[in-house]
Task: structure prediction
Amino acid sequence: MRKSILTLLTVFSLGASSLLALPTVSLTRIAGDSSGGLGGGAFNAATQFEGNFRTFCLESTVTMSLGTTYYYSWSNVVQNQNDPISLGSALLMNNYATGAFGSNYAAWGGATGLQQAFWYLENESNGVANQFVAYATSILGGSLLNNANGAYGVRVMNVWSNSNGTGDRQSQIAYYGVPDAGSTLALSAFALGGMMVLIRRRKA
Result:
């Protein structure tokens, strides 16, 4: 009996450790929608639980390797700097993700122009006050650089080398409305619930 209990505790401990690990993501370039030599987006983020969606870089001096498996967490800030994203960046990412730019996207410089706009609005090097920035300014006025705080369904995908959220890599801006990142927590809760049922059955 004691051996069975120790075995169950070991299994539960291993299961709990895996549940604490962050979900994985791999980022790759998108053919025909890339800022090329800038080293920025758009990227395709292929995630463990939430499907695929497009992202852009928030930091121009932090690196990552395309095609590498990393870990990620959602936030309203770039966590390694505790730096919130701007309302202007959130508006632009929402418009990109929902296709609201229409023909203006290509006319204003496509992925290159949009990446430069994000860097400008986040006070990063290589940023440019271009037509994307002018568009956001025309809508938001003096609130352009305010803390977005999840507005427009947009948040930060913080990217990490390690499953415990350490080893900072290049943070991404993403439309959080697609997908609902709460699914990660739901899947974790489901797995933990299954583990508890297993223990109760063994005790019975």
Observations:
- Residues 12 and 195 are 7 Å apart (CA to CA).
